[in-house]
Amino acid sequence: MAFNFDSPTNRLGTDSIRWDGADLKEVLPLWVADMDFQSPPCVIEALNNRVHQGIYGYTHSPHQLNAMIAAYLQAQYQWTVDPDWIVILPSVVSGLYTTVQQLTKQDDCVLIPNPVYHHFKLACSTANRSFQEMPLELKDGRWVLPIQQLQSLISSKTTLALFCNPQNPGSTVFTREELKEFGDFCVQNNLWICSDEIHAGLVLTEDKQHIPLASISKAISEKTITLMSLNKTFNFPGVGLAWAVAENPSLRKAMQVGLHQTIAPPSLFAYTATMAAIQEGEPWRQGLIQYLRKNRDLIQSRISNIAGLSIDKMEGSYLAWIDCTQLNHPNPYQLLLDAGLATSPGSQFGRDQFVRLNFGTQESRLTQALNIIESAFAK
Q1: Residue at which a domain ends, from 279, 308, 323
Q2: Using CA atoms, how far apart are residues 121 and 216, in angstroms rounded to an integer?
Q3: What does the pLDDT look like over 229-256, one tens digit per residue?
Q4: pTM (2 decimals)?
Q5: Residue 9 located in a structural domain
Q6: 101 lies in which domain range?
Q7: Left if phi > 0, otherwise alpha if psi is -120 to 50, otherwise beta: which for 314?
Q8: CB atoms within 10 A of CB 116
Q9: What is the tens place of the pLDDT at every residue in 27-81?
């Protein structure tokens, strides 16, 4: 089945955080990480059917959902997971906050990457936990962990490492060797691991595949909470459902603290959307990957021809991490905003001289954005 990702979409008047927050006569908003494509037809149909039932009462997690997720993980990533290891959550973000709160004490320290999604830092600061950053290194166009420095970055108070794969915002899809090296380091130093793998279904590099960190070895699995969701891949983050995978029973228990109390469960529509995506969404996902690869190639071609800008290989996700360091401009984010393009500022991720561009949009909009970038930085 062919899917038309070029078909224009209008998100005005939908209470979109990204689109309703801008003066569209002045600014093209390509920042928040949701896509401008309609969700898969199978998801739309399943939600329509549920709506037409007309009763929206209190809903528990479907009895078959954990088994469906486990089968999906086996099919997609060759990862064997017992359904009992899975804890259903409303979002990956809530899982990050719960992990930090429950697996660390007041005077503990958390190891986190830099650059990284801003909720990693916020999860620590909200829980009043200190954190130590792992400065990722750009090697051969890939943001990789500073393995040789890791030992010097931890202390006796370091008890938890937060990880992100595929990396946000750097887009690296870590190799088995890289994952094993990091996982073994954490095991040897008795660190819990929380691995955010929400972009697992969005690997763009043709000869790569997503490998869950916890799938590397039983020793690593026993130390790891893996956070996953189909919200990003199938573009229904406003519906929202995630899960944690933890082989270790004590980690599963930690992830359930507050669920159905201070942490609300997913809505009935979230169960419906997720199950539809698992059962019938793969053809759409494959079409999406092909479209995003074309957008990625367009960005790399255009950015490489703008003096002062550079970009990594964009191995996964639909987020371009653009390096503006060589421009020597005090605020490249503001420069683009003034020119009519809203990106995510690099400061949000720990690197002031970068901007993050969402290319999960129609090629025509992406071309418009690239024209703005070219014009702004040419001046």
Answers
A1: 279
A2: 26
A3: 999 999 999 998 999 999 999 999 999 9
A4: 0.97
A5: no
A6: 65-279
A7: left
A8: 24
A9: 999 999 999 999 999 999 999 999 999 999 999 999 999 999 999 999 999 999 9
